[in-house]
């Protein structure tokens, strides 16, 4: 946007389904056939403001929307301590519904998977800096 200087991007990402095979087999009931898909689709939106030196990102899952809601919000901004540093804040939300007794199992798996991703990003940032 030339009036605000904000660069907006919206894109769809395809990721490999990482749900363990045991959960795919346990959920062999007809209504959970969707867990057996090979790929998962995510929508990502980002706003880069070069004037304010910050970027915000929002990501949510497009796959399994009838059973689960997964979303993540990240903000990168100039540190108040040092303008050459970046403050990074990330929030994630997971909610599984309609899976009966498996709701909590699937939520725990998703939470564990997302925590591993956060650790990987943190380690990459430390190595890069």
From TrEMBL:
PRELI/MSF1 domain mapped to chain residues: 1-129
A GO CC annotation given for this chain: mitochondrial intermembrane space
InterPro entries listed in its UniProt record: PRELI/MSF1_dom, Slowmo/Ups
Pfam families: PRELI (PF04707)
PANTHER family reported in the protein's UniProt record: MSF1/PX19 RELATED (PTHR11158)
Descriptive protein name: PRLD2 protein
Source organism (scientific name): Oceanites oceanicus (Wilson's storm petrel)
Gene from which the chain derives: Prelid2
């Amino acid at each position: 946007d030339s009036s605000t200087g904000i660069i907006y991007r919206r894109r769809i990402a395809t990721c490999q389904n990482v749900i363990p095979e045991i959960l795919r087999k346990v959920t062999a009931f007809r209504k959970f056939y969707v867990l057996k898909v090979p790929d998962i689709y995510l929508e990502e939106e980002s706003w880069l403001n070069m004037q304010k030196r910050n970027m915000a990102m929002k990501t949510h899952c497009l796959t399994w929307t009838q059973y689960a809601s997964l979303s993540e919000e990240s903000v990168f901004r100039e540190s108040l301590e040092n303008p050459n540093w970046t403050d990074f804040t990330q929030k994630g939300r997971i909610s599984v519904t309609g899976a009966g007794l498996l709701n909590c199992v699937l939520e725990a798996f998703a939470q564990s998977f997302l925590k591993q991703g956060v650790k990987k990003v943190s380690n990459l940032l430390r190595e890069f800096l």
